[in-house]
Design goal:
The structure holds two protein chains of two kinds.
Chain A (H helix, E strand, L loop, with lengths): L1 H4 L11 H7 L5 H11 L13 H29 L2 E3 L4 E3 L3 H7 L2 H32 L6 H9 L6 H11 L6 H8 L15 H9 L4 H12 L3 H9 L4 H12 L1 H16 L3 H6 L11 H10 L3 H25 L8
Chain B lengths: L13 H28 L4 H6 L11 H8 L3 H32 L5 H10 L9 H10 L6 H25 L4 H8 L4 H29 L3 H6 L8 H11 L4 H21 L1 H11 L3
Helix pairs in contact in B: 3-12, 4-7, 4-9, 5-7, 7-9, 8-9, 9-13, 11-12, 12-13
The chains are: A mainly alpha, B mainly alpha.
Chain lengths: 334, 283
Amino acid sequence: MSVLTRHRPPHSASGNERAASAERAPVGGQVERRSLKRSARPVSGTRIPRGMRGPIVVSLLPGLLLFGTFFLVPFFVLTGTAFARWSGLDFAWVGLDNYRQMFQDPVFFKAIVNTLFYAAASVFIQVPLGVGVGMVLALRPRGWKALRTIVFVPFVISGAAYAVIFSMFYNPRAGLLNNALGALGLPGDRDWLFDTATARWAVAGTFVFIIGFVVVLVMAEIASIPNELYEAASVDGATTWQQLTRITLPLLRNVIGTAILIRLLVDIGMFDLVFILTAGGPDDATATLALYAYRAYLSGEWGYANAVGSVIIVIGLVLIITVRRAFRIGERAL
Amino acid sequence: MSETGNTRIARRSVWANILIYGFLGIVVLLALAPTVWVMLSSFKTGNQIFSGNGFWPSPFTLQGFIDAFTQIHLHEYMLNTLIYAGLGTVGALGTAFLAAYPLARFSFRGRNALVALFSLALALPLVGLATPVFFVVRELGMFDSRLGMVIFYSALQFPFTFVVLRAFLVSTPPELEEAAMIDGAGYFTTLFRIVLPLTRPALATVAVVAFVNIWNEFFFANLLLVSEENRNVQLVLAGFKSQFGFNVTGAVAGATLVMLVPICLFLILQRQVIAGLTAGAVK
């Protein structure tokens, strides 16, 4: 999280951050950034009162135990075994062999390209669409609340459920897509998911319209923009369109960056949909890095699977840092 | 979500309205048409589903829902998932609350490092850790066990829950607790009698999000469960795909029911879900 939202101090930072963040509590994202920034210097919080040391340790212990067992230990196992041949039982150091093997495998490159393709679909279709809908709904056209709810619903539907939905939707004979195309007089007999020409687009089509989360983030951010800005603009004769593009959009830089970050993290680890819908086929045209690692795990090449896992994590970190730079996340626009 | 934003909806031209509603209509159609179509299909006969004729069910039948329980035994998997999601949420909330309070209130050596570490887990694509997680879970004797899955899901939801709860606690004033402690109340008394009731709104928010996340979880369930009797609903959904020929109406109705659980939770607790997700700004 700190990687996501650590940032330079806001221009307006006075000493009274607690009041500021309490006041913005409903928006949340703000509280988050501020609190993390605060934790960078040990200002907040009192010293531990006499006799509380013991209870505090007891209080921290369960969380530490869970986190240590299921995040830290696996992380160290991953870094250790990525340089070994390992099947869970036998173990031998092999240096960089796993990485060498990876970079010679054309399927690995297909998996990388596909994963980046899905990431690009999110960044260039899903997020802009969500920002657009969020900005329009923030104008409060009649029925905006109901529309916000409707647009959000797909976000709480699981990947497995989406796989069921879209395996029916894309079905070459009985699917809604081909039937609708047929009804419009267009050729409607393509097997969208298993035709190498369309498979990747078909998979991307399952998630690019899940925009509810971006919409909600954008609307929360717009709600925190002071009204005076718009009033002043109207007085000066700015149209709604000008207000949207000249005032709102520039102020959304931060939240757009955050939305992209969150989406990229999902895309880099994309598994459920592809695994269930196509199992990576046809001819690995839809396979992702996570699926590639999973196949190595299934065939007992655990060291190799972990080397791929390390690549997934590194790509994730690189993308995070790049997006944070590009969007100057954390630097307040106001 | 605050409703006090820009209340400046001046008069808009007819064309602007056509543009706005046209755009929103197309997006809603693209986002929901496949889902609504599948939900409607759960009232169709197998013949109609296979032929692909007609958008609306005709004839209308509830056979799919009957099959979902009598043939697929969906209720058993739903009970499993309820156990995972319910107890996993309790576990995550309990451990995260206990850890969030001292890390929000007191300053001590290593505090900032700990906060950063817990938060960093939210920025990792966790599927990268699949094999080591499998290894650790197996070594602990927790593979393919219900209790093991509950513990694992508590851990999986811990970072998000921790980050949101800590942010909330940092933004609340400490005076009440300080007064209680001066009056001689011990740490845990203060924590459970004073802090816990004050934290209730934040707890409600993260609880819904954690529950829905675990209900919808597929990747680690697929990795860590093998027995038929331990499977969660998402694994069952994934299995439907290969069984469509076998009982398509039951499968479609089952998928609809599984989706409806988080959808209904969201519709009832909309405010909490949205607040929780924007607060975490992650996931």
